[in-house]
């Protein structure tokens, strides 16, 4: 088993990281157990965010008394310098540390956000100040857009990028990976099992792990799935012909109705955040019930109810997805799940 160098940070990482989204759904005692078991098994990078409700707090409590070096990554959706500096202070307190290894601009998914974080009072400059003060070690950014990822990389201002990568979402292989490697930027792969919706999670993770310069961070909430993920990493081998055939079958089955989060379908005339709704299955598997019932997800659900099936999104989708029909299906799933 070989550790993975996270680009110019020179941090040596266990082949997979611990994704901190799903532990929002479980109680504190269970979260502490699964995090400590991950550390026992060798995982040494834990990724979380201010937006993941109590995830940072649970991680901080799990790390108390741990002497092994554990690298921490967190992120903020705040777009201003002052705002992100406040978020960093909260993250430090929650995690119980004096310095966070990687702090990221969370979800830079469109050009307006890109421009905002680099404005004179933008969040990027807050990260620069935090690094100068020793509050963080490295600066990163996460994005669901390949075009924005290219722009972020070309600024040469980031040590780490976080992107979507799995057996369905492979667009980053063409331009983003080569660009990041050229500039020696570390790559963390979120959604390596499609946010829990890809039927063969182990196979998707194995596919992602074939790229030795990528560190996947699957969201983990049970010891069972943790041990399965670690087993895949510890016993990694090249993909067989049979496995590639299985991958192609999954791509054909899911590809007809799998949103890649490219956002080419936007803007929606009804202001529906389309990819949020199309990935509702994943959100409902990973988020706590209270978050589903209020806040950003619930707001997206309410907007989606206004879909008039105008079809504008279909004309823009490069994958020819039947988006209005998919929205209708997802609305019913959400309604049944949250009892609305």
Automatic annotation (TrEMBL):
Record the organism: Caldicellulosiruptor bescii (strain ATCC BAA-1888 / DSM 6725 / KCTC 15123 / Z-1320)
Entry-linked InterPro entries: 4Fe4S_Fe-S-bd, 4Fe4S_Fe_S_CS, AKR, AKR2_Oxidoreductase, NAD(P)_OxRdtase_dom_sf, NADP_OxRdtase_dom
Give the keywords, sorted: Iron, Iron-sulfur, Metal-binding
- Tell me where in this chain the 4Fe-4S ferredoxin-type domain is found: 298-327
Which terms does the record give in the GO molecular function aspect? iron-sulfur cluster binding; metal ion binding; oxidoreductase activity
Q: What is this protein called?
A: Aldo/keto reductase
Q: Which domain of life is it from?
A: Bacteria
Which Pfam families does this one have? Aldo_ket_red, Fer4_17
Gene3D superfamilies, sorted: NADP-dependent oxidoreductase domain
């Amino acid at each position: 088993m070989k550790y993975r160098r996270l680009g110019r940070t020179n941090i040596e990482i266990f082949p997979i990281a611990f994704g901190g989204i799903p532990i929002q759904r479980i109680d504190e005692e269970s979260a502490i157990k699964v995090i400590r078991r991950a550390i026992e098994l060798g995982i040494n990078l834990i990724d979380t965010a201010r937006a993941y409700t109590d995830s940072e707090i649970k991680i901080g409590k799990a790390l108390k008394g741990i002497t092994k070096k554990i690298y921490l990554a967190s992120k903020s959706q705040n777009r201003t310098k002052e705002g992100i500096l406040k978020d960093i202070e909260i993250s430090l307190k929650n995690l119980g540390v004096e310095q966070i290894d990687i702090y990221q601009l969370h979800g830079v998914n469109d050009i307006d956000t890109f421009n905002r974080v680099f404005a004179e009072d933008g969040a990027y400059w807050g990260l620069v100040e935090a690094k100068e003060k020793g509050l963080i070690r490295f600066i990163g950014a996460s994005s669901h857009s390949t075009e924005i990822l290219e722009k972020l990389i070309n600024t040469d201002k980031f040590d780490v990028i976080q992107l979507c990568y799995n057996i369905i979402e492979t667009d980053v292989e063409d331009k983003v990976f080569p660009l990041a490697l050229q500039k020696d930027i570390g790559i963390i792969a979120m959604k390596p099992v499609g946010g829990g919706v890809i039927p063969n999670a182990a196979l998707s993770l194995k596919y992602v792990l074939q790229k030795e310069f990528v560190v996947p961070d699957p969201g983990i909430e049970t010891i069972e799935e943790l041990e399965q993920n670690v087993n895949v990493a510890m016993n990694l081998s090249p993909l067989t012909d049979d496995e590639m055939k299985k991958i192609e079958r999954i791509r054909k089955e899911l590809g007809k109705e799998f949103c890649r989060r490219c956002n080419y379908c936007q803007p929606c005339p009804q202001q529906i955040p389309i990819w949020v709704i199309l990935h509702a299955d994943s959100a409902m598997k990973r988020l706590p019930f209270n978050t589903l019932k209020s806040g950003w997800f619930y707001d997206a659900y309410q907007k989606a109810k206004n879909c008039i099936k105008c079809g504008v999104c279909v004309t823009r989708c490069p994958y020819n997805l039947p988006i209005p029909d998919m929205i209708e299906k997802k609305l019913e799933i959400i309604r049944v799940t949250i009892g609305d």
